[in-house]
Every structure is written in C-alpha cells, then in structure tokens.
Amino acid sequence: MSDDDSMLLNFITNEDDANNTRKASTKIVGGRWKDRRKMKMMMEGSARKRRKIETVEKVPDSSEKNDPLEKSAATVEIKGDGKQNMNVNSQVVSSLFTSNREISTAVNTNERDDTVVQGPSNAPLAGDSFEALGIRESLLTHLRGKMRIQKPTSIQKLVLSHLLSQWQGMDKDLFINAQTGSGKTLAYLLPIFSRILSMQTRVDRKSGCFALIVAPTRELASQIYSVATMVANCCHYLVPCLLIGGERKKSEKARLRKGCNFIVGTPGRILDHLQNTKVIRDQFSHSLRYVVLDEGDKLMELGFEETISEILKIVHGFTPDYSTFPQLPTRIVHILCSATLKSGVKKLGNVALKDYKLLSNRELESSSSVAEVPDQLVQKIAIVPPKLRLVTLAGSLDAIARDFVHHDTTRRTMVFLSCSDTVEFHYQVFSSSNGYYRNLVGDTVRSLTKGSRILPSFTNDKEPNTIFYKLHGSLSQQMRTATLEHFSQDDESTKGKHKIMFCTDVASRGLDLPHVGTVIEMDPPFSTEDHLHRIGRTARAGQSGEALLFLLPGEEEGYLECIKHYHPKGWKLVKYEKDILKPAFQAVTVDKNDREEPSNKKDGLWDSNATTWHLNVERRVLEDQTLKILAIKAFTSHIRAYATHVATERSYFNVKCIHLGHLAKSFALRERPKSLAQQGTKQGGQDKKGGSKRTGKDKMLRMADLAVKQSVNEFNY
Ligand SMILES: Nc1ncnc2c1ncn2[C@@H]1O[C@H](COP(=O)(O)OP(=O)(O)OP(=O)(O)O)[C@@H](O)[C@H]1O
C-alpha cells in the first residue's frame, strides 16, 4: 500500500457532555501510514481517557442558533515530516434527531371525524340527467359512449340549466364557483356546444370562432383544448384551436387560417395573435359569442389583468351581426371560472363581467362563497423540523408504496415544491442512484430499476415499480407536454406502477390528471388559494384522495389557522417520527451506500436507518459535484422563493425565523449558509467589487428581497 494513500477522516468530538451522545468519525490525510496510525491511536487513546480532544469551534454563523451540539468537523492533515496541519472545513455533520425546535401544535384543533363517512361532494348526481337539462341527443350519445360521462355534477346542473334555458337573448354573464374536480370545464363547454349544435344553419370551421377560452397556464390551456377536442368529436365539423406560449406561432397562424370554432389559449399568446394575426380578428368579428376566463383568480394574481383587459377591448370592438346565428346569444357572454373566490377574481369580474350571475354549488356565506376542499379528501398535516424534511418525504413516499398493493391500477403521487431548482434536486435525489435508472422521456422521466437503493421500501423489491417525473416552468414546452402525457398514461403497461411527480405550482391549477391518489405539499403554497388548488389535483369527480402538508415547527404552525376554513371536515395531525419515519425505516435495513453488497443485518432501529439513509444522500452530494451544485442552488432558490409568500401570510413564513443550517441539511448539505451564500454568489457571478462586506445571512436575505421584486413565478404564458 503506498504511503500516501490519502484517507480523509473528520475529527472525533467525543465530549462526555450529558446530552451529547453524538460522534463524528475522524479522518487523517496524507503523510506516512505509520504517522497516521500513531495519530489515530493517540486520538482513540485520548478519546478513551475521555480527555476532551480540542475541537475547532467555528464561529457560528449569525443565522445559526448557538447550538452546543453543532460542532464543526475539522480535518487533520499530516505533513511528510509528521507535523499536523489542522484546517477547519465548513462541514457540519449534525444529527438528524437532536436540537430540533419545539413543536407547539400538540392538540389538533380541527380533528377529522373518521366515524362519519364523508360522501364525495363533487361527484355526479345520480338522480339527474343531461337530457333533462337540454343536452341534445348527438352530444348525449357521445358523452355516454366515448367520454363515459353519464350524470351531471351539481355545478354542471346549475350552469347548464342557466345557459340552456335563456334562449331569449337574456344570456347573462356568469361566475362559476365550485370545488376543485367538480367538472367546471364541461359545465361551460357543454352548453356552448349544445347551443351551436341546435342551430338550423349548418356550421363548420369556416363559420367563425364562437368561443374564446383563456387559462393561466399552458398545461391547463392544453387540457381544456383536449376536452374541447373530445367533445367536438361528436360533430367533426366543429374545430378547436390551441394558442399557447412555447409552441410555434407559425403553425398556430396556419391553423387559424384554416378556420376554427373555439380558441383556447394563454393570455399573452392570444393577445399577441389578436394584435398581429389579422385572420384571428376575421374569425371573431362576426361569430364570437362566449369569452371564458378559467381559473380567474390565478389570471388576476399573475398580473394578467392588463392583458385580459386588452383582449376584451379588442373583442368588444367587433360589431357582429347577431342575426347571423339567431340561436346564439345576441351579446358576448362572459364566463369566469374558479374554485376560489378572491378579491382579485372580483376585480377581474369587474373588468370582464357586467351584471353577472354567481353560480356556486355551495351555500354562499353573506359576503362571498367559502371555497372548501371536496368532503371526501383526507387532509393530513405533519409538523416536521427542517433537518428531517428530506427523510420524512422519503418515509411518506415509502408509506404510499407500501400501501400500494392493488397492482391492477396505476398509483400517482404529486409532490409540490417551491421552485424549479428544488424540483430538480429532489428529482435527482430520488430517481438516480448510481445510475440505476433509464431515461424515459428526455430527462424528465426516470424509472427506478433493479438494485436501486434510494428509498427503504424499494431495497426489498426486485423490480421497484416506481417512475419519477419532474415538471416546472423552466423546462421546455415539449418536455412539459411529454412529461404530463407520460404521467397521465393509463394502460396495461402502467398497471402496478407508482408514478411520483415532483412539481411546482405550474401543475397546481385545473390540471385534470387521471386518478392522483396523494398530493404532498412539501413546501407550503405561496397563497392559501394555491393550497386548495394543489390538493384539488386529488379527490376529483367523486374519487377518493389524500393530501399531506409539511409545516416547520414554530411560526409556520400558525398557518393552520389560515387554511382551517378550507377544511370544514377537519384534518389529521400526523407525528413525523411515530407515524412516518418509524413505520418506514423500522421494517427495512438501509445500508451505507459506500458498500458494494447490501448487508443482511437487520437492526430494526428506525432512527439509525433513517440517519444512514440521510447520510447516504449527504455522501452522494459530497461525492457528486453536479449534485452538490444542484443542492446549493436548490437551497438558495428555496430561500428566495420562501420570501415570496403573499404579504398577509408572511408572519408564518418569515425567512428570518428559519434555522438555515438545519434547512441546509434537508438539502443534504453539511455546509452552513454563510459559505453557501458565498458559493451561491460565486456561482451567480462575482459580487460587485468593493461592495460592503455582508454576512451570509444578509446575502441570503438580499437575494430573497430580489426575488420578491422579480416576483419570479412558475407561470409563463
Ligand atoms: N358529469 C361528470 N361525470 C363524471 N366525471 C366528470 C363529469 N364532469 C367532469 N368529470 C370529470 O371530472 C374531472 C374534473 O373535471 P374538471 O377538470 O372540469 O374539474 P374542475 O372543476 O375544472 O377542477 P379544477 O377546479 O381543479 O379546475 C375530469 O376528469 C372530468 O372528466
């Protein structure tokens, strides 16, 4: 063995402090092996004599609580002449389960009563029928046959009876407000199609555009377009058209020139065409009768008000001859759609709706309808210390995989995170383990294959049936579309698979994905309405579903009061140790990932398994520079995103109250924020020369302020 086989061990800090049972390993680098052996013996000897080995105390970063248990690790380097050279690196190998902040939410003040069976509140109404609501025969057959839709939901019953009954040009503007997953899309599409199909005049794609439908995200616009296309299949002469950012404008223009009867799109692209593509104005000018603004509150929140006003100004400028299509309304009917009512929606309502009728399938409170989650949705809340977020997510995903025994179905889980970078980091951590994966769709879909040692429950599977996805606004449109299609795929090949999607709020609104069983909000949403829409991806159209929200101990616990009104049926408060980590890590053996072969020892100590699992991830981050850069980027972006919570909720999400060192641990980082901020700055380009000297914490906060100004968000149109 060569003399200089450089081994690197961290410093042992065996202090016999009563409450400090933690050890770290010691690494000795360089020099002759005899010197190293002598040093090691000396250290171990002194440890045995319980003499305090001098540890190098790093001045804790101002952001760090002066935590006696958090010691810096140091490396001891032995020079050729046997002299020691101790240099402090900034890594902290802190225990997962010590020095975590007190959790004050012991009592669940909104307990869900499991003894009461909650019937689904957004399911189709067994006692009603589409015929009775005036849907035409051809459309009915198509609904039942091709779309397997038999009965109307409550909101569809309300809207259909309103829009189909008023044929005398009394069509009023509508505000459709109903729970997520209650079928609002078909609630406005079916009456529009029905009215067009009832016309004596035979129409086709050249007859002009009857409806303009605007949505805040490309994904939602694409989804509405696909539902409209499905409905249009009942009469091949009606053609929808999709106008969204990220797609080629040239092909959109070509489609517009051929003619279409419905235009679905995102605000920016629609306005762009209205201003620059003459043919679209010809499409609208004589035939436009409906303007639908889906997810109206999000349109407002994203500052689309000006764009929407501009679109409406142009379409209101047309002077159609209403006698051309007498069975259609003799004015442009505006329809606003949302599961949540916000002042913004009202503002948009004032811009778009005149003297509108509010149709909601909920009892309206005096001032406004209270948005609520579907009754059958089971909400769980876990107060998780920052250091334990990553390993608790692993345990939560494991619990779903363990319970997933119906291998004749496809299981889907969505994990909402604060920004693109954290999605990328978690996607890498969970989907790539020593290369045991195959890229299925570009780099946004990966299937765990044999031997993957990522999650505890997968170590026992010969062929873990897990496919990981990532979806966020920084991906190309093609990747986003292909990823969603793959995630939504539901056929023989997907039976028995557990599909897990790490995503940002780009996937929170309106997306109707085939049965999503669980929604995990690892990062709380940026506004309470987003919470409702995120968890609304599950428990749709009467199906069951559950949601899990992670909150940090301390200020974030107050957020429960903020969202309580969305959950009149209550929620379950789960303990991260007893209910998540112990069941997940007790039953399996998690081996250190620097072993070649898994050991078959079973120690059953869930906390040591959880710690080993987390150290495995930390080790991967240490050894893989790409993953480390991703982890640092994710951590700093997470902090920036954290600062963009709406002002009214910032008392719960105050970046100054976060233990940044502990939070860094949930990104498998051992380095403290100060050096991370420096690294973050280094990566992001040099600081201005001669700028005032800032601590790491100040830098972090400055970046957070920057983000608030840039109001960077996942929605691009
Ligand atoms: N009458 C019906 N019977 C059965 N399923 C229906 C019916 N109407 C809609 N659905 C299904 O319910 C799901 C949810 O529909 P949709 O996406 O329109 O809900 P939504 O109210 O718009 O939800 P969100 O508020 O999240 O946008 C879709 O899969 C749709 O196919």
Task: Give structural notes.
The chain has 23 helices and 19 strands. The chain has 717 residues and is α/β, with parallel strands linked by helices. The strands form three sheets. Strands 13-14-15-16-12-17-18-11-19 form a nine-stranded mixed sheet, sandwiched between helices. The chain has a seven-stranded parallel sheet with strand order 6-7-5-8-9-4-10, sandwiched between helices. A hairpin with a 5-residue loop joins strand 13 (437-439) and strand 14 (445-448). Helix 13 packs antiparallel against helix 20. The longest helix is centred in the last third of the chain and has 18 residues, at 606-623. The structure holds adenosine-5'-triphosphate. Adenosine-5'-triphosphate (ATP) is lined by residues 124, 149, 151-153, 156, 178, 180-186, 339, 510, 512, 536, 540-541. Adenosine-5'-triphosphate binds at residues 124, 149, 151-153, 156, 178, 180-186, 339, 510, 512, 536, 540-541.
Helix fraction, binned, reads 25-40%
Number-wise, the strands total 19
Spatial gap, N to C terminus = 61 Å
Give the number of helices: 23
Shape: elongated
Biggest sheet strand order reads: 13-14-15-16-12-17-18-11-19
Hetero ligands = adenosine-5'-triphosphate
Low-pLDDT segments? 1-25, 49-80, 82-90, 364-369, 686-692, 708-717
Structural class: alpha/beta
For the sheet with most strands, the description reads:
9 strands, mixed
What fraction of residues sit in β-strands?
5-15%
Radius of gyration: 29 Å
Average predicted confidence as pLDDT: 78
